[in-house]
Each structure stands twice: as structure tokens, then as C-alpha cells.
Amino acid sequence: MKRRLTEGFVLIIAAVVAFPLFWMVLSAFKPEDEIISADPVPWTTRPTLDSFTRALTVANFGRYFLNSVIVALVVVVLSILISFLAATALTRFRFRSRTTLLIMLLVVQMVPVEALTVPLFFLMRSVGDSVPAFGLNHLGSLVLVHLAFSLPFAIWMLRGFVAAVPVELEEAATLDGASRFRFLWQVLFPLVAPGLVATSVLSFIHAWNDFLFAKTFIISAVENQTLPLALQVFVKPDQNDWGAIMAGSTLMTIPVLIFFMLVQRRLVSGLAGAVKG
Amino acid sequence: MDSSGLDSSGLGVRRAVGFVAPALVLIGVFLVFPALWTLYIGITNYQLTGPAAANPRVVGLDNVVNAVRDPLFTNSVWLTALFVLGSAVIGQNVLGFGLAWLLRTVRPVLRRTVEGLVLLSWILPGTVVAYLWFAVLSRDTGTLGMLLGSPRTAWLVQYPMTSLIIFNVWRGTAFSMLLYTSALAAVPPSQLETARLAGASGWQTVRDVVFPHIRGHVLTNTLLISLWTANDFTPFLLTAGGPNHRSEVLPVLIYRQALESGQLGYASAMSMLLLVGNLVIALVYLRLLRRRA
């Protein structure tokens, strides 16, 4: 009886949480007259792909989609490699300023991002003077910034995972004749994989969802814009094109969903381990 | 320092430095350096346009003094505190724990579905989510208004802060839920059983048996979600601070002062104050955490 009650309550919460998501997908498939209708119904009898067609053709969606995917994937791969190496060194190697460094990693996560847009804009302009691919209006600038912003948290999380691997294991591997390099990639790397999954999800979300930096850095190069900005095309002062916005949003959600489903199990155990560590 | 010494795995100084270097260079150049630059801009009268743009002058702590006297700033501090307290410290914490607690006993299928949905609202792009909520909450065509039979209620205009808080609870509960799920798994079942046999109520069990076990998790979670919420920029996409500054939390105020009014120096000084606020919260948390030991 009590369990029934609990389950009923949980179901209600699930429905409330799911409602906006359901509404998004529904609106994406509704014909235009039903969307602007004064009497909206939570279903549609005439599903159509019109909104998707508008989103894909009018806004050059494919191009932006590709840009977002490139930025997010490069950030994920690089942040895994860089944070893994850094976390290993910071855990296994004790040097004098280590504690200071670790505290610094914690403090930089508190810096309000909005505050940095202006200095970063100037910084990227200078970077672009010497290396255009990483300067303003290029995807490289977004990669650099997202990397820098996701690394502190990633290193912080991975530390616990590296620390949980016993040093004896490393000694055994060395005795068996494994090189330091082999130990690192064939023993340690797989062992901290749950942590890497959790951090990669966070850096993926960071890069994929970013609106602020894309808006600040990609000013004139329309072909290098990312998805969050592309959606704005349909926001008009007089009449928002809700159908296209929802269709675009649905499309933008799909990669997150795929990425997420691939790692859901590991994400939960990864977050758990990170906090214990 | 443990018995294995300075370099427990024989990494060697050169390799250790080589491993840390890429991360430190990236963080240093693109995070710490701009942050210090912001600190510097904060003590000047730098502006986006006009004479002060070409020749910014160092004005010392004038910006800070002006900010403290600025009703817009104090209003914003107040709203940010409300936002953090309402949506993170109370909202996400309580709902996250509640869900984790309830989900222990329900069928696995149901548990995974709810977990998946809650997580989904967390990982969805901020822009997507903002449009979504805008559609649900806006006047005339707003879904919520339609469903409640009061289409003329513009939720984001009439109750901007309440809307933002509910939105942020909806969006951010996933992290707390995950964290508490793992924390609850570490509570010894025998103790819960004993509490049940002793006839303790649900609330007594949570307070006297569960809470002492998960105190560290509660503090870590509260700290992280408070900091994330204090720095959250998504309210800009929903209300842009309006109407009439009624939902202008600090990140939004800073952004608007910097890029809409062009007061770069003033905005930087305000972000410095926000950073100080974050640090104070973190210190209080470290204090509380240490008292445990």
C-alpha cells in the first residue's frame, strides 16, 4: 500500500518533469495553425514535418549542427587526455605547491563566466592575429575556452579516481616489465574510465550548450556559428516561429540524448565515485 | 604525507611537469589571466565606447563604492540570494533528496524512467530549455496559462522570480538526486532496519540515522549547486532581468552593465564582488566540513 502511494507520487513528479519536454516534441510536429491556436491540445491528429523542413532549410541548420559537433567532440577528447595526465601527476607526485594548486583549481571554478567575456574577447583577437584558426570568428576559439573552463572540474573529479588505484598495482606492472607509458594507457586509463565518462559528459554539455561565448566570439563569420545561436534566427520581434524553434530544439537535443544514453550507467557510478574520492 | 614518499610512482619531475603543463597553460591563459584582467578593469573607468574607452583611468575602489550604493546592485544581490536559497539550497536539495529517498523503494523500471527524465532536463541545452519554458510560461500563447484557463497571466512578467526559481529547480535537481542516490547507498541497511524495528517514523529515520552518514555529501552538494546557481546565466534567456529589474540576478546585471551599457569597469568590479561572495560561501562550507572531523 505504502509502495503504491510512493509510486503514484513518483509518477506525478515524472509527469511534471516530462511535460515541457513532451510539449517541445509535440510542438515540433504540429502544423502551424495548431501551434498558434488559442486552444492548444496536448496531441495532434495531423503530424507534419513542415517545421523541421523550415528549420533545416532556412537556417542552414546542417552547417551549424556540424560546427557544434566538431567543437563538442574536440573538447571532449582533448579534455579527457589533458585532465587524465594532469590528475595523474597531481595525485601521484607530491610537490611543494600542490595544495596551493589544488585550491586554485577550486577557486577558478567560482569565477563568474559573464565577467570574462570582455577580456577573453580581446585575448582571442590577439590570438587570432598570430594563429587565425584559434582567433575570433573561428571554431578554435570556442575549443580553447571550453577546454579551459571544463579542465578544473575534470581534474578535480578525476583525482579521486586516480587516488583509488593502489600504488602497488603500478609497482606490480613495473615489475612485470610494463613501461610507464603502457601502464598509464593500458592499466590506469581503463581503471579511471568511470570518472572519465562523468567528466566527458560535463565537458560535452558545456561545449554543446554554450551560448555566451559563441555569441561573443563568432561575430561576423556566419558559417562558423553554432546551434544555440542558429535557433535565434526564428525569434522575431513580432511573431516567433515556435514550430521551427521547437523543431530545431528537438534536433539539437538528439545528439545529447545519444551521447547520454551511451554513458548513463557509467555517469551515475562516476559521479558517485567522484564525490566519495 | 604517506610512507610512499614524495613521488609514489616514480614519475620523475620532468614527466610530472610535462603531464600538468598542458592543463595549467590552458587554465592559466584562458581562465586565470582573463580573471586577473577583469580585476584590473574593475579598478578603472573603462567603457565600451566614448572617451573612457580610449584612455581608461585607474579609479581605485570607486566602482566598488558606487556598486554598494547603487540600488540596482543591492536589489540584484538580494535577488541572487533569493535565487540561490530558493532554488538551490532549498529547492534542489530537498527535491533531490526526496526523489533519491523515494526512488529506493519503487520498481526498477519506474526508477530508471524518472532518473532518465530528471537527468534529461539537466543536460538539455540552456537555450532549448529557455525557449521551452518561455513557450510554456508566456502570455496569450503560453501553455500553462491555457491549461489553467487563465491565458492572460504572463507568468514571467507577473511572477518573474518565482518562475525562475521553479525553472531552476526543474533544471538542476538531477545533480542532487544523483549525489544523494549514491550517498544513500552507503548507509548501512542494518541501521535502517533497526530504526524501523524501533518504530521510528520516516522523518526520525532520516534525521537520526541517515543524515549523520551523508552530512559530507549534503555539504558538498549544497556548495556546488549554490555556486552554480549564483553564477547561472540562463535567467537572462528567460526574463533578461525584467520586468523593471525584478529578476535581475547578478550575472544578468553584470552582463547588461558590460555589454548593453558598456560600463566595463563597473561591471568588472561587480563580478569581483560576486567572486568574493562565492569565496565566502566556500569558506563557510569548508568550516562546516572540517567541524565534522
Secondary-structure topology with pairs:
The complex is a heterodimer of chains A (277) and B (293).
Chain A (H helix, E strand, L loop, with lengths): L1 H28 L2 H4 L14 H9 L2 H32 L5 H11 L4 H18 L8 H26 L2 H9 L4 H12 L1 H17 L2 H6 L9 H4 L11 H35 L1
Helix pairs in contact in A: 1-13, 3-13, 4-7, 4-10, 5-7, 7-10, 7-13, 10-13
Chain B lengths: L12 H30 L8 H4 L7 H8 L1 H33 L4 H16 L2 H12 L5 H6 L6 H4 L1 H26 L3 H9 L4 H29 L3 H5 L11 H11 L3 H29 L1
Helix pairs in contact in B: 1-14, 3-14, 4-9, 4-11, 5-9, 9-11, 11-14, 13-14
Written overview of the protein:
The complex is a heterodimer of chains A (277) and B (293). Chain A has 277 residues and is mainly alpha-helical. Helices cover 76% and strands 0% of the residues of chain A. Chain A contains 13 helices and no strands. Chain A has helices at residues 2-29, 32-35, 50-58, 61-92, 98-108, 113-130, 139-164, 167-175, 180-191, 193-209, 212-217, 227-230, 242-276. In chain A, helix 10 runs antiparallel to helix 13 (242-276). The two termini of chain A are 39 Å apart. Chain B is an all-alpha fold and 293 residues long. Chain B has helices at residues 13-42, 51-54, 62-69, 71-103, 108-123, 126-137, 143-148, 155-158, 160-185, 189-197, 202-230, 234-238, 250-260, 264-292. Residues 1-5 of chain B have low confidence and may be disordered. The chains are: A mainly alpha (277), B mainly alpha (293). The interface between A and B is large, with 89 and 95 residues.
